[in-house]
Input
Amino acid sequence: SHSSRLGWAGKSAGAVTWLPFGGLGSATRYVVAGRPAPQPGQEPGADVRAVDPGYFRTMKIPLLRGASISERDTRDSRTVVVISQSLARTQFPDVDPIGQRIIMEWGDTLNAEIIGVVGDVRGKGLDSLPRETLYWALPQFPGQRFMSLAVRTTGDPMRLAGALRA
Output
């Protein structure tokens, strides 16, 4: 984990493509495998984030069901996705989302098994409504050329600046 590699006892770090409250983000349409094809333009849409295994823990986003993104989710393993609680409520009101599949065009066609449901995040601001979100494992997300770091510490965050730069 980032914490053990950087030697930060009692702290954590994670990576994500777009941090909440940053004003920027990615979103796209997707389909749920096995359902009738929606009319063009009628596909459901969601915010899209790629995360590493430390992100949810660092941001204290609770895992509500299933499993989270882990070190096992590599470029060569089965493709997985974690969904937000609001997406689970909208798309799977009467069925367990775990094991269902999401298909999303993003450079490549991503066809992933839903492995978990996490709590909602107010991505635009504290007064905004949570948006439905798809969280992909960072190594499995095509064309990813940037990320943001989230770091949680119990001390002065500026004391970590050197270690973060390194």
